[in-house]
Amino acid sequence: MVEELKNHINGEWVSSSTDQYVDVINPATTKMIGKTPMSTTKEVEEAIQTAKESFWEWRSTPPVERARYLFKLQNLIEENYDRLSEAVVEENGKNIKSARAEVQRALENVEVAAGIPSLVQGYNSEDIARGIDEKAIKQPMGVFTCIVPFNFPAMIPFWFVPYAIATGNTYIIKPSEKVPYTAQILMELIEEAGIPEGVVNLVHGGKEVSTTLLESDDIEGVSFVGSTPVAKKVYTKAAMEGKRAQCQGGACNFITVMPDANLEAAKSNIFSSFFACAGQRCLAGQNLVAVGDETYDQLKEMVVEQVPNIKVGYGLDEGVEMGPLITAKAKESILSRIDEAIDQGAKVLVDGRDIEVEGYEDGHFIGPVVLTGDIHDLDIVHEEIFGPVMNLIKVDTFEEARDLINSNNYGNAANIYTQSGKWARKFAYEVEGGNIGINIGVPAPVPHFPFSGMKDSFFGDLHAQGRDVIDFYTEKKIVIERYL
Ligand code: NAD
């Protein structure tokens, strides 16, 4: 891996002139693997300018031709599958299986976006009055940008980039400063696919780079994914600047288990939801809600028996199921929130706080932690933890579970395990969550569906992926025509 990351502006890899860097640390080995430049305002402005200048040529390239570049990109991602997956593990820490799954999802977004000739079609009516026809067409708007988080360095930028360019816009990617390498490889592949210079640009940095992008008159809209406080700020700022914004925030997800659930079939699915990626997924379970005494007792037994066996380690090592937290700071913050919950009365069922991973003693590891007791109102249940923590909660009825979920400020995912169609339907109908899983541990929408989210988990109206993202990246124009 290279030492110092470069920006990609107007088809060229360029070093930033900044003297400010963020260290990129492999969270398992704690080795420094590079330095992310906090690019200067001038550099961001250059990227915006080049994207703006490239727009007219690109927007007048027929969609069928734009799609051909995406087919090339698809092949290149397939050829570089291992390289991309390994880069994800090295900078983010998740295990190789999860990394491959995320690269797969990035790839699928390219595949779906390649259907742009049909996806971008408008509609028309003949004879809206005598001899007059009307049509709605979808047109690209100009320069868009995405500001993305650390937890899916390959997948999340690709919720946006393939669709933005397929619809004829030009683009600036701002990766997370913590995980810049995967984006760098993806940018190399975009270049290799022959996508014309200036159509996609990459600018590294943090908050200041985001601010320059958001304040530019030449940026039409922003796709943001990250924590809720930042999502809210970006949404507000974008609105003030008259831009489109789709801002996905944090999450605090509940998995409900009904007495009729098939626990044997569900258990690995449930555990993986909580602990794969060390809980650093916006669709990860945080709270396991058992309906009824018997369900609670069964889950408790299952958890105590099996969760300590989850293999924690370096994601490139064989058999590893769970990696480290992204930073030492994240680890400390999660540990202190667990301690706080214990002080407030939470009982510890599984305690991975002092885990030592052989060969990686300095890594940012916390083993799986399971808390239970009278914890329904504690912060550990209601605030986003983003770590390998499961809160096992007992309720007496479906309604109690539903009310607990709906009392939470977030609304990203909610899942139910049941064999009853009645409970499943009622859950999907009444629960406030954007992505509902019925006997599914991580209800991640495939690319031809929008990645939903509601309440404090999403600010905006049109989501990532699916038909939503095509609408987000296009302006609807109405043409009413009569030929005299
Ligand atoms: P973060 O909010 O710290 O950073 C996200 C991005 O915003 C980064 O690129 C960062 O450089 C930039 N940024 C930071 N502060 C900023 C500011 N004040 N103004 C503008 N930009 C700023 O998030 P993170 O820690 O990288 O990611 C984890 C969070 O992302 C979690 O809360 C998780 O739930 C959330 N997430 C949500 C979804 C979803 O679909 N809802 C998906 C993945 C992750």
TrEMBL record:
Domain Aldehyde dehydrogenase: 13-479
Enzyme class: oxidoreductase
InterPro entries: Ald_DH/histidinol_DH (IPR016161), Ald_DH_C (IPR016163), Ald_DH_N (IPR016162), Aldehyde_DH_dom (IPR015590), MeMal-semiAld_DH (IPR010061)
Gene Ontology MF terms in the entry: methylmalonate-semialdehyde dehydrogenase (acylating, NAD) activity
EC number annotated for this UniProt entry: 1.2.1.27
Listed GO biological process terms: L-valine catabolic process; thymine catabolic process
Record organism: Halobacteroides halobius (strain ATCC 35273 / DSM 5150 / MD-1)
The keyword tRNA-binding belongs to this UniProt entry's keyword annotation: no
Protein name: methylmalonate-semialdehyde dehydrogenase (CoA acylating)
Record lineage: Bacteria, Bacillati, Bacillota, Clostridia, Halanaerobiales
A Pfam family matched in the record: Aldedh
